[in-house]
Amino acid sequence: MEFNYLTTILFLPAVGAIIIAFISSENEGIIKRVAAIFTGIPLILAIYLFAVFDRSLGAAGLIQFEEKYLWIAPLNAHYHLGVDGLSMPLVLLTAFLGFLAVFISWKVHERPREYFAWLLLLETSIIGVFASLDLLLFFIMWEIEVIPMYFLISIWGSGRREYSAIKYVLYTLFGSAFMLAGVLMLYFTTGSLNMMDITNQGLGMVQSVMAPGAIFVAFLIGFAVKLPAFPLHTWLPDAHTDAPTAVSVILAGVLIKMGGYGMIRICVGMFPDVAQEYAQPLIIIALIGILYGAAVTLMQTDIKRMIAYSSISHMGYVLLGIFALGQVSLTGAALQMFSHGVVTGLLFAMAGLVIHNIEVRDLRQLGGLVRQVPVMAAVFSVAGLASLGLPTTSGFAAEFLIFLGSFNSTAVPNLQVYTLIAIVGVVLTAGYILWMLQQAFFGPAKDQFNGVKDEDVMEKCYTFVLIAVIMLVGIYPAILTDVIKLGITPIVGFIGG
Amino acid sequence: MNLWLFTPEITLAVFAVLVILLDLGVQQKNTLRSVSLSGLVIAGAASVAMWGGDHPALFNNMLAVDNFALFFKFLFAGIAFLVILASADYVDKFSRFQGEYYAMILLSTLGMMLMAATADLISLYIALELTSISLYVLVGFLKDRKSTEASLKYLLLGALASAVLLYGMALVFGATGQTQLGAIAQSIQAMSLEGLLDSPALLMGIVLLVAGFGFKIAAVPFQMWVPDVYEGAPTPVTAYLSVASKAAGFAIILRVFFSAFGIPEWLSLNWGVIFAVLAVISMIIGNVVAIPQANIKRMLGYSSIAQAGYLMVGLATLGFAPAVAIEGQSTILFFLASYALTNLGAFIVVIVISNKIDSDEIADYAGMGKRAPVLALALTLCLISLIGMPPAAGFMAKFYIFRAAVMNDLLWLVVIAVLNSVISAYYYLRVVKVMWLVQPASGENVPSSGAPRLALFLCCVGVLLLGIIPGLVMKLAELAGKIFIG
């Protein structure tokens, strides 16, 4: 029998969480090492899968490393895992950030046993979302993620953490309530829970009793809350700002990508015709998100809140790329999800370091830090430049593909005009990123910050690794796009555009 | 006639009497517990042994011995078993009356088993009264002011409900001339549509039956007894009421409405709509009123009203589905099984904690995550299951029941139900928050003895198993869904 790579990647963190639950909180060092091992092995396996992933054109639309077992016979539900070009990079990203999150959390000393158990459980559920090919399994993984998030934000967070945590939970549950209705309707109309069958055979296999538009909208609400798309975004600034650093990294890095992934996989993949009908309003929503998100970011003074709002703007690009419905724009959107995951992950890690080492989170009170903490300043600058899409960073490649793709797309009339408006967002992004860097690190040095600690060895390690990934994808994006396009091609084929 | 088919009921009756007699002579009251538990084990095992047999009925079709009845008999035996385990420490509060306590639980279980099996209006009423009278006594067992008030309230409102039910039964009998459910069905099918429309007595009778049963399952607007009774009754009895009594109510509704009023479609659609409307108001009122509750027993009381609402989505499905379909029945059976484990688990934690801190206020649960991590974790799991989130049983139960509803054109009802689940997350998570986030008032640990811990362990394992690999129980529920009509 073939080795079940995906199952191993999926459940090792959960196994680690269970083991950690039995270690006494006093053995903090052991807990952290166990966490590192049980996220490290999945990362190695994910890298291996990514390396041996079949990139030949013949593999377009094929599911690789598939595992399928009957799970609940009366419901015809299967334990069905597999990855294609769309989900492979996201599984890799989750394993990567999940591993780094352990080190980013190295300085957590409060109730470490529970903290790492929840963190590892969170990783399992997110990987589960990306790797599931059965709608029921997908939905279960989608829901499970809420519980660890609730505890992680409300116990280890800062500020109004309890408010932010419950707000996050209620928003998510509200979205998934609609999604559940969508799953049930889809199940009823197709009689299947197999996501690949539904995608490939279309709703033709259907007794078509329910309007596909209703199913599309039900799923869309669920994904739009998570992405988040305007006007369902208001949970995000609170949750990101108040979450502990590593959780912000996971939240911004991979969790909100679940929304984009779901939109491509289900909304566009299964309902290409409906997606075309709804593309225009959704692109307008994307534009509002880009510009409004960027404008609000400009006004922030809290370092974490600022990065949080910038995510809304960046996710607007993803939404634009998805509903421009072209091969290039969709590839760009998928690349942007990966890129934003790494870049914003790094930004949040750095913001966490600033808050931890300098104990100030208001940008107006910072300043001139480049002299006291040169390494931090350099890393933060690289992350910021990647966020505003400077060439040679991953952000440039992704945004360039999105704009190129949507400019050339004919899915929606006047898309060129919309694209040009969206590009204004890049200018605003440059504005707030440069302002943030200038406020925090440049200008006259302040004596009160003399003697603050710069990055230690471990922090240097993980920040440099993140920078390396950003540059690698920026200089040679084909390493990802070759994989992504195998997942996108069949979807675009359905659109026929 | 084969009296062996009556084994579970006879066993319980014999053991109930035995416990009372032993109570006179035995000093070690723990013996009484073991004796009652073994009675329940025998009754449960006998039900399992009869599963799948082809002996449909007893006593001239008064009692059915189909898989449906056996499913419930096993469920009730299991619930009573867990409740008795869970009351191990609690019974010290009324140490003089332990024998009566166990006997009453056994007798009410007997009544519920009969309720699930009854296929005739007369045996139905007897079974219902046997259950209710035992429960009236159990509710008043603490003999303090709240408990007595609860008992009296339950008795008065219960008697009213019984009267309404009797009146409904009389009207149905008057319209059809039959008491046996299968015979009622035949008589109704013999009527023409005009005949049915011209017979308001029958329709009135059906509506009154809904009202009478609605009291048992605590559906809005027949729920006003719930909060006070739940708060005043001894906590194990509250647990028992919220789970077993509700399950028995659903068992009897399923049997009566499926067997007697399932055909013609015109009729079943109409009571389907009634249950759909009751489901909506039960869910909304149960969930909204649960939000401000400060007492966890009252909160769980309102939550059980909301859960009855979700279950009635299944009843509405039963009405809307074609008469041969079994989705309505099987989904309700599965939901009841998972609800029983979940709610019992939650109540066992409440019992153990109130034994120690002598309070049921949610605020006093502060810091339970530190004082009693295992109990707090178990309660968290049960509350997550009540919200209906994976990986707990509650999710699968809801998914299963909502799926059947969507398949039968009740999408609107499902949308209301899932949105209600979101509301419910707020008050369930409030308890979670208090347990894990608020600092404890005292650092003292909360001890628990072996028996409740075993019961809690069984509940939690059950909740997880039904949530992760529900296939087997769903299969059993489908087999049990084919109700014998007679």
Describe the structure concisely for a colleague.
The complex is a heterodimer of chains A (about 500) and B (about 475). Chain A has helices spanning about 5-20, 30-50, 85-105, 110-130, 135-145, 145-155, 160-190, 195-200, 210-225, 235-240, 245-255, 255-270, 270-300, 305-325, 325-360, 370, 375-385, 395-410, 415-440, 455-475, 480-495; strands at about 65-70, 75-85. Chain A is mainly alpha-helical and about 500 residues long.
Walk me through the structure:
Chain A is mainly alpha-helical and 497 residues long. Chain A has a domain at 273-497. In chain A, 73% of the residues lie in helices and 3% in strands. Chain A contains 21 helices and two strands. Chain A has helices at 5-21, 28-52, 87-104, 112-131, 135-144, 146-156, 161-190, 195-201, 212-226, 235-242, 245-255, 257-270, 272-298, 303-323, 327-358, 369-372, 374-387, 394-408, 415-441, 457-475, 478-495, and strands at 64-72, 77-83. The radius of gyration of chain A is 21 Å and the shape is globular. Chain A starts with a helix and ends with a helix. Chain B is mainly α and 486 residues long. Chain B has one domain (3-480). Chain B contains 20 helices and two strands. In chain B, strands 1-2 form a two-stranded antiparallel ribbon. In chain B, helix 1 (7-25) packs antiparallel against helix 4 (98-117), helix 2 (29-50) packs parallel to helix 4 (98-117) and helix 6 (145-176) runs antiparallel to helix 9. The radius of gyration of chain B is 21 Å and the shape is globular. In chain B, 63% of the residues are buried. The mean pLDDT of chain B is 90. Classes of the chains: A mainly alpha (497), B mainly alpha (486).
